[in-house]
Amino acid sequence: MLLFTTLTALASWTLDLSSAPENVGAWAVRQHGEQLCDTGGDRALAVAAVVYAKKGGLSSWGHASVRVLACEDGVLEDYEYEAYKMGPDDRERLAEAHGARPFLEDRTYLRSQHGRLVLYRNRGTVDHGWFGDAIARNREIYELWLPVSPAGANRMWRSLDGAWRDQVERLEARSPLAEIDYRWWSTNCTLVLQSSLPVSGLEGGESLGERRYPFALLRALEVRPDVHRVVHPSADLLARLSRRAGSVDALVTALDTGMMTLEERTRPAWRSGKKTARSVLTALGEDALATWVPEAVAFARHSGREDDSEPPR
After folding, report:
1. What total of structural domains would you count in the chain?
2. In a domain, 291, yes or no
3. CA distance 227 to 208
4. Rounded to whole angstroms, how far apart are CA atoms 300 and 311?
5. Which of 70, 114, 124, 313 has the most CB within a 10 Å radius?
6. Residue 269 resides in a domain
7. Whole domain around residue 42: which residue ranges?
8. Tens of pLDDT along the chain (313 residues)?
């Protein structure tokens, strides 16, 4: 097994290539996870805290979100909940999220909400390319799949989905967006974790919810032995793995046989490696990518969850 040793005692990170931009359209989550909802009903299957790597200049603190794999009306859904500072560019994104709605034509109302926190529920985190878009910008994505009970997972889902549905009603009524202003040191993108971790039932969830920076949350969660660590690699990370493995072919062999893990998060001052990453993915092949089982699905399969939930409405 090719492992990268460090002085830390942290468990390794599992690499997940199902979200690669080249794999968008393969419907990896739906293809491999659809049977998870065969029993019907509404329930959360698995929940992860997500941290995006820093993006120089535009996102020096990184970004945080919550990913929920769930059954809704008997259909597998892969949601990502994230919060941003409302600004001029959000009209276009709100249109993508909600379609043609009257509030989108009320530019005075939308301008009045600039500076407030706006919540998004991205549907199809992997299959619709939300992760792929960030990876295409050379940002790796770290997921920490949480060891919460079925009831705890559902409480997190209800909390986040309820806030999103409340926001839809506020938008339709042209009401203030939860009356929370964006502040980089407190009410920022981590609000989705600040609000949901305390109701998760996770040991230490309340104190974790008090952390205000994406990488502070990441550092607090990655040391827990009961957390499943997954990394969706950027081009830069694939290039670094290739160099450490000795060659592109050696890395491809390790990936193809499931024998490659990452022992320590990388902390690059700058990112490159797109040419090498293309070589790795080309050598790995479209078939290997298309059949790659997403770690979200694998975690849900083995989490042993039972349907003791209430719908998140």
Report:
1. 1
2. no
3. 14
4. 18
5. 70
6. no
7. 22-233
8. 233 322 233 468 999 999 999 999 899 999 999 999 998 889 999 999 999 998 754 556 789 999 999 999 999 999 999 999 999 999 999 999 998 899 999 999 999 999 999 999 999 999 999 999 999 999 999 999 999 999 999 999 999 999 999 999 999 999 999 778 888 788 899 999 999 999 999 998 888 878 889 999 999 999 999 999 999 999 999 999 999 999 999 999 999 888 888 988 888 878 899 999 999 999 999 999 999 999 999 999 988 544 444 444 3
Residue 15 domain-assigned (yes or no): no
User: Whole-model pTM?
Assistant: 0.91
Residue carrying structure tokens 């009831």: 151
